[in-house]
Write a structure and sequence with these properties.
127 residues; mainly alpha; 6 helices; 75% helix; globular
């Protein structure tokens, strides 16, 4: 199972654009605005694993992506001054988040599962 890197990069750029748009001030409040950003962030982590390891099997990529997303969420409980300062910047907030919320684990799971399902579907079509 090999995934073309150009396809992964294109997918990653598309997901980043949709994720940033989901946080835009013009986005009406509601389910999408409240949940999409975290799910899309986890989908980016999934795509990042595929970019680094294009032959990685879907279950392993999904477990790795969810593990990283969960670890990043848990690090938000750490309140070291320098880490809080990093999270206070825009890049730090986009990459590390800003506050621990339990429901984010569900959102991350949804994003990773969506990515794994699409990945599996594409792999099945290629056979």
């Amino acid at each position: 199972m090999h995934r073309p890197r150009w396809f992964i990069i294109g997918s990653l750029l598309l997901v980043i654009a949709v994720g940033l748009a989901s946080r835009a001030s013009w986005m009406p409040p509601g389910f999408w605005a409240d949940n999409a950003g975290d799910a899309l962030w986890a989908l980016c982590v999934y795509l990042g694993f595929l970019l680094l390891f294009p032959k990685l099997r879907v279950p392993y990529a999904a477990l790795c992506a969810f593990g990283v997303a969960a670890a990043v969420e848990c690090q938000q409980l750490i309140q070291w001054p320098w880490l809080v300062q990093v999270r206070g910047t825009l890049p730090g907030q986009l990459l590390l988040g800003s506050g621990f919320v339990w429901v984010d684990f569900v959102r991350y799971g949804a994003g990773v599962l969506f990515g794994a399902a699409v990945d599996w579907g594409i792999q099945a079509l290629r056979k």
